[in-house]
Amino acid sequence: MVAGSVGFQCPECVVLGRRQTRQADLPYGGSRSAMPALTSQVLIGINAVVWLAIILTGGANSFLFQTLAIRAQAFCATDRYILAVDSQAQCTAVGATWFDGVSSGSWWQVLTNAFTHLDVLHIAFNMAALFMLGPQLERVLGRTRFLALYLVSALTGSAMVMWFSSPYIITMGASGAIFGMMGAVLLIAWKHQGDVRSILMWLGINVVITFVGSSYISWQGHLGGLLGGLAVTAVLVWLPREQRRWQWPLVAAVAALAIADIVVRALMLAPGTPVS
């Protein structure tokens, strides 16, 4: 018999009770969420509110859209020309329009672009993917780790956009974070020796769509998000239990590397610096 808090239990009863009791800790160190879909629902709500605000304030011409979406380099333009001026004051003085970018100080765009959409199909597909994948990942990783995965993937997507997109092109959407989530699902399935063929097929279809539509789809943001999601998930699920104290420092290192890349590129594209 096994001594319990009240009386004694047979060994078989103890084993059965442990199997039937939900543990508070998740397999990779996170805490079990009482509502695993809540984080995804909040993220979907934020995206929906921002999209609606953009549509109601002018769509592509909305100040909100131009402020939140990411552009690596600011520029001054008329209806026909881009002008060689270095500041918003100079641009306004000649009667042209100034379009801000990360390199001119709009640093928030590296994250706000992941909550910014214009086309209804774009936000619909992204939010559908978030609705399907988000709760599953939160059940495995816990709320805090899932949110870190989502935001760091968005950040690494922005870093890739900064370096490999045309500096004047505006980019937006949660696709980088979504690709990071797809990478996470793939690694977790592989870790547990699951059948990854359907996941690889789904990911492969999205990669093909990305490159076929590269004239209007940001392959840079998608690839950056995927790489960031793979890196964060590898840190979370492959560290041995006794080394899990390194999870957060290593996740922070992935984010710091992305931020460093963004800062370096922004300094290269700062007003007055030739584009390289």
From TrEMBL:
Cell compartments where the protein resides: Membrane
Membrane topology per record: Multi-pass membrane protein
Domain of life, per lineage: Bacteria
Cytoplasm as UniProt keyword: no
Keyword Metal-binding found: no
Record-level GO BP terms: proteolysis
GO molecular function, one term: peptidase activity
Keyword annotations from UniProtKB, A to Z: Hydrolase, Membrane, Protease, Transmembrane, Transmembrane helix
Residue spans crossing the bilayer: 42-65, 146-164, 170-190, 199-217, 223-239, 251-270
Ranges for domain Peptidase S54 rhomboid: 105-237
Name of the featured protein: Rhomboid family intramembrane serine protease
